[in-house]
């Protein structure tokens, strides 16, 4: 009987390779529909179903009733009060639909990805980059609408700084603004990817230590199977942590988007 850990490296490599985008329809060289595109669509559809059911149940009573209605209302009010009113001031109503949408889309994909057998639509850098690009374009447009194209570009340099230092600061600010696109995409992707690899690794450990007992029962294999209980226990703890991470990452993504909008519309930088 070999050591169950001997095949761990191979299993983990196979696990990591399973996160590579694979086309369900078409191919990646031209036009393809990957498994991440599929689960992204599933998450968005589920989110829309939840919102439609919520709206229907909410309209049935003037006072919110039930855990479901109160729970969804709490999420909406949290986005409104914490991320919109708290940061954007009087302009919060104008930006609330975008911030709420970006938060709910990221949250829905993160949560769906935690369900065993599913993948997060936000589990690939191409998806998170697309979401980050939406946020990037939105706050740039907000800045241009508020200051004009030239005024927004000029506002990136702090007032009162003499030339040529202000030109250097302006270049740094331009680079920092572009870098927001990268950091939004990479932060979300890396947190989800790392979390799912860790969960998958402990699931593999539990299976590797349990399989020998199924193949040939003995005192040693039974002892190894008992060790798999430890791995399952750790997996459940990590699973709970990943649920929290899924919510936190959706919050961070939407919060940073709101902050960037506030910076773009500010009179002084």
Summarize this structure as a short list of keywords or feature phrases:
single chain, 269 residues, mainly alpha, two-stranded antiparallel sheet, 8 helices, globular
Number of strands: 2
The total tally of domains equals: 1
Global mean pLDDT: 81
* Principal-axis shape: globular
Estimate the helix proportion, in percent.
over 70%
Poorly predicted regions are none
Give the biggest beta sheet.
Answer: 2 strands, antiparallel
Rg is 24 Å
Strand content: under 5%
**Structural class based on helices, strands and sheet pairing:** mainly alpha
Secondary-structure element series: HEEHHHHHHH
The spatial strand order of the largest sheet comes to 1-2
Count of helical stretches: 8
What is the straight-line distance between the termini? 67 Å
Task: Please summarize what this structure is.
The chain is mainly alpha-helical and 269 residues long.
């Amino acid at each position: 009987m070999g050591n169950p850990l001997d095949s761990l490296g191979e299993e983990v490599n196979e696990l990591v390779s399973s996160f590579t985008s694979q086309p369900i329809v078409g191919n990646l060289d031209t036009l393809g529909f990957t498994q991440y595109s599929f689960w992204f669509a599933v998450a968005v559809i589920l989110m829309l179903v939840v919102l439609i059911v919520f709206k229907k149940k909410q309209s049935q009573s003037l006072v919110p009733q039930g855990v479901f209605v109160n729970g969804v209302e709490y999420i909406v009010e949290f986005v409104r009060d914490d991320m919109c009113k708290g940061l954007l001031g009087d302009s919060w109503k104008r930006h609330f639909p975008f911030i709420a949408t970006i938060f709910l889309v990221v949250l829905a994909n993160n949560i769906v990805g935690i369900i065993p057998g599913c993948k997060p639509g936000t589990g690939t850098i191409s998806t998170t980059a697309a979401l980050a690009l939406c946020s990037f374009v939105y706050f740039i447009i907000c800045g241009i609408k508020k200051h004009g194209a030239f005024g927004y570009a000029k506002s990136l340099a702090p007032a009162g700084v003499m030339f040529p230092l202000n030109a250097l600061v302006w270049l740094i600010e331009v680079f920092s603004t572009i870098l927001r696109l990268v950091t939004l995409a990479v932060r979300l992707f890396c947190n989800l990817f790392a979390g799912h690899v860790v969960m998958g690794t402990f699931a593999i450990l539990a299976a590797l230590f349990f399989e020998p007992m199924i193949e040939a029962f003995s005192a040693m294999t039974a002892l190894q199977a008992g060790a798999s209980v430890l791995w399952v226990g750790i997996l459940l703890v990590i699973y709970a942590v990943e649920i929290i991470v899924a919510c936190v990452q959706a919050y961070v993504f939407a919060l940073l988007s709101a902050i960037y909008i506030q910076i773009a519309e500010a009179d002084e930088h």
